[in-house]
Amino acid sequence: MSEVKVPQNFIKTIIEEDLESGKHDEIITRFPPEPNGYLHIGHAKSIVLNFDLGDEFKGITNMRFDDTNPCKEEIEYVKSIKEDVNWLGYEWDNLFFASDYFQEMYERAIVLIKKGKAFVCELTADEIREYRGTLTEAGKESPYRNRSIEENLDLFERMKNGEFEDGSKVLRAKIDMASSNINMRDPVIYRILHESHHNTGDEWCIYPMYDYAHPLEDAIEGITHSLCTLEFEDHRPLYNWFVEECEMENIPRQIEFARLNLTNTVMSKRKLKQLVDNNIVDGWDDPRLPTISGLRRRGYTPESIRNFCREIGVAKNNSLVDSQMLEYFIREDLKNKAPRMMAVIDPIKLVITNYPEGESELLDANNNDDNEELGSRKISFSRELYIEREDFMEEPLPKYHRLYPGNEVRLKNAYFVKCNDFVKDDNGNIVEIHCTYDIETKSGTGFKGRKVKSTIHWVDAKTAIPAEFRLYDNLIEDEDVSDDFLENINKDSLVIKNGFMEEGMKSLKIQDKVQLFRHGYFNVDPKFTTEDKLVFNRIVSLKSRFRLKK
Length: 550
Prior knowledge:
Oligomer: single chain
Number of helices: 12
Low-confidence stretches: 1-7
Distance between the termini: 17 Å
Structural class: alpha/beta
Helix content: 10-25%
């Protein structure tokens, strides 16, 4: 599948205008995740956007970890984020950490204090919220707002030196408590946290707030276009204020775009963490999650995710994207890549009573009818086979054309077989189907006699390999995920079947992908597969009603 070209979008237009006007000689973008969880498909959209723009305009794209909150950030997340970005096919030009700039951020805060633009405040967090006001009412100034510059400098240095307890003091910007934009009402820019940091250890006990740190990080790195999602649009005046008042040499431009929302999909680190912590899923890489590690484990390819992100494009308004669109792109990517094989996931034995006992033969089968380069293989065939339980009915429904007493079907790549009778156990369950085969109907021989209405797949019972098949459905039943999503968990989002696969599949390795006849596309699970047992995750079914709009 050829990769989708980067579509024209308003951000690209802005960059083109900035380059043509001479405002910038080179563009510098960045992907700035906070290492407080695993990346998901929404982050993939930002990764693809920033790196593709950097590549298209021959610019620079940095990877920067926004690690300003030691209480939530871990080196485990740093490692996983690096792995995810590389797996998606991207290499950053520079790797930075916000914590690398802590000293400069501290010095820029002193610049604010000396200009009378920042002060040390002793209100509690609840009091600060109360003083902030509402959307319709102006805020109230802190009683500490008019401290002298000298006192603020002294207190801020003592905060840095660890003389005060957590929460006892903060440094706030002095802007406008009557501003119509609540973000401009003297926001907190430093808080006291006696917490060890994954990168700086115990060097600091005061840490900058995101709204203060982020614009300074962009300015320090010379970012030309700072791309973020729409929830930061109201923060842009504050972003610009910090860049200007901290007297940064480089002036980045913040541009907002719509975040990705998928139907039936949790797109929030906080909510994803609830699913993990409550053991609703088996970890951050559970194939039902939209995390990049979960999508990778399920069997999605980097190409399919990149093409999906490019196709949805960049918009200025939030919308809900059908999750079937993501499935469309993995089908498109795998249809000519994945070998087509046979496995029976809900087996029942079929005995060909007129096939010689003790004998077997090898039949020819193409690995992919749409891609001759994948070649062919031999599959064993003998008297006893396994077929799908749903491929036999004692009393067939109308328009049911598979096996039932007296009916004839084709066995894929093999012969016509006709059902004669069946065997039930003491509980009345059908445990064995008896058929006869017609040796003249062998596939590939050019047989042009009678026709049958159905072809079913099978595996040879003599050589079949046991395997586990994991079938996935939407984890959340509601199309539009709400805050009470834990009450709408789909209990059937994972169904595990134990069946058999054809012998040649035993050579498959972790993360290998196959198309199983009639069942869909499957991936060898890296978490539960062992030397003695292959476990397959169904990536997607074979067909969908979803069609990509032209």
